[in-house]
């Protein structure tokens, strides 16, 4: 059998058989692929857990107690014929501001589909830029996806975060969110949405997915980097779309 190595019980059982001989091959070993294609794959997936699986042929086991497993992510992919413009009714941009100038600002767009499901639409996170730089990246993501709200964690910098975002685009509808729980604990209700099939990924987002697979039950984090900034931004956006209480709209009643 020939397959992409995935940490699934069937593959583990087959590989564990005494009569099984395992041969691994890396994407770079394929002589029929062009240099341009190989470089594009490395640029997109290099240095990530997904890249170790897809490019290097490794079986990357899930972290014990992970809120998102590789299998959950793969089963949560939107269909290939997913048409964003036709199905998305509302878009929220989640922002996890960096604690320092060298850090990563998590910027993730999530949308509410006409089918009632939440979709991860884009990861626009940026690293090593000034507050004005990541604010412009947020404004770009909001314009690109037609967002009607930006939810930004205010623990780092408080009112400054909202002020910086508004300086980049005064029309941005910014909502400051104060985190009372740790990143892992905040992610648990959102992970349940994916488990129940109420949220999906409209594409592949390797760095975001690596961070999601590092979040564990109880609030731990065992993924790449010091902080799951991209994952946290996604959690803020998805929670605003799918878990925030719906406010009653004013109506005219005819008696």
Count of DSSP strands:
7
Oligomeric nature of the chains? single chain
Q: Any idea what the radius of gyration is? A: 20 Å
Report low-confidence residues grouped into runs of 5 or more.
Answer: none
**Structural class designation:** alpha/beta
Please outline the major beta sheet: 7 strands, mixed
Order of helices and strands: HHHHHEEEEHEHEHEHH
Q: Whole-number average pLDDT?
A: 84
Helix content: 25-40%
Overall 3D form: globular
- Separation of the first and last Cα atoms: 71 Å
Tell me the β content.
15-25%
**How many distinct helices?**
10
What can you see in these coordinates?
The chain is α/β, with parallel strands linked by helices. The chain is 37% helix and 15% strand. It is built from 10 helices and 7 strands. It has helices at 9-16, 35-45, 49-54, 70-75, 84-87, 131-145, 159-168, 183-195, 206-212, 229-242, and strands at 88-96, 104-113, 118-123, 126-127, 149-153, 174-177, 199-201. Strands 1, 2, 3, 4, 5, 6 and 7 form a 7-stranded mixed beta sheet that branches. Helix 9 packs across helix 10 (229-242). The protein starts with 8 loop residues before the first helix and ends in a 13-residue tail after the last helix. The model has no long low-confidence stretch (mean pLDDT 84).
């Amino acid at each position: 059998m020939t397959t992409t190595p995935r940490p699934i019980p069937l593959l583990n059982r087959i590989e564990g058989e005494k009569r099984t001989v395992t041969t691994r091959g890396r994407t770079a070993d394929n002589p029929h692929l062009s240099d341009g294609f190989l470089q594009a794959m490395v640029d997109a997936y290099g240095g990530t857990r997904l890249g170790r699986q897809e490019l290097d042929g490794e079986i990357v086991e899930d972290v014990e107690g992970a809120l998102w497993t590789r299998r959950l992510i793969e089963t949560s992919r939107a269909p290939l014929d997913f048409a964003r413009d036709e199905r998305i009714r509302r878009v929220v941009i989640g922002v996890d501001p960096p604690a320092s100038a060298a850090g990563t600002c998590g910027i993730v767009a999530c949308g509410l589909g006409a089918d009632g499901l939440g979709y991860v639409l884009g990861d626009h996170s940026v690293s090593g830029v000034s507050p004005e730089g990541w604010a412009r990246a947020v404004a770009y993501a909001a314009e690109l996806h037609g967002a009607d709200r930006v939810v930004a964690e205010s623990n780092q910098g408080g009112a400054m975060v909202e002020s910086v975002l508004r300086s980049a685009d005064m029309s941005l509808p910014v909502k400051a969110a104060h985190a009372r729980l740790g990143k892992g604990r905040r992610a648990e209700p959102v992970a349940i949405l994916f488990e129940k099939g109420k949220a999906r990924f409209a594409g592949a987002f390797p760095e975001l997915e690596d961070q999601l697979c590092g979040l564990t039950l109880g609030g731990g984090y065992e993924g790449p980097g010091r902080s799951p900034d991209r994952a946290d931004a996604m959690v803020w956006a998805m929670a605003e779309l799918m878990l925030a209480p719906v406010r009653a709209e004013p109506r005219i009643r005819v008696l």
